[in-house]
Design a protein that fits this description.
Blueprint: H1 20-33, H2 44-73, H3 83-86, H4 89-112
Length: 113
């Protein structure tokens, strides 16, 4: 009988590059525990949402670590958002579509590895 994948919540250490196996385990964990689907029964939407949660969780871990560092070091933050970025709806659509296709490509590599 083949080994079943380890679906415990993987640890993504702050500041470290995420290893493919860690990404795969996190994705499968989210597919099973967040979407409630096994890969054989999951729809493309389930795969997309599980991958989106995987990416979000990694970003949140890093953001929380950064926020804790800023608080500990009593750092200040200056933010600037260029108005050119907000001026075009088509630009937003292009960015969104590019990110979607990259996530789908990443999902294919994770599942097929």
């Amino acid at each position: 009988m083949p080994d079943s994948p380890d679906l415990s919540r993987p640890s993504m250490a702050n500041g470290d590059a995420v290893q493919p196996d860690t990404l795969r385990r996190s994705f499968l964990h989210n597919l099973l525990h967040v979407q409630g689907k096994i890969p054989a029964l999951a729809t493309p939407s389930d795969f997309y949402l599980a991958l989106a949660h995987t990416v979000r969780n990694g970003l949140l871990r890093r953001w929380i670590s950064t926020a804790e560092t800023y608080r500990r070091e009593r750092s200040r933050t200056v933010a600037y958002l260029s108005a050119e970025f907000l001026s075009s709806e088509s630009r937003y659509g292009s960015i969104e579509n590019t990110m979607y296709y990259r996530l789908i490509g990443c999902m294919d590599r994770v599942l097929l590895s």
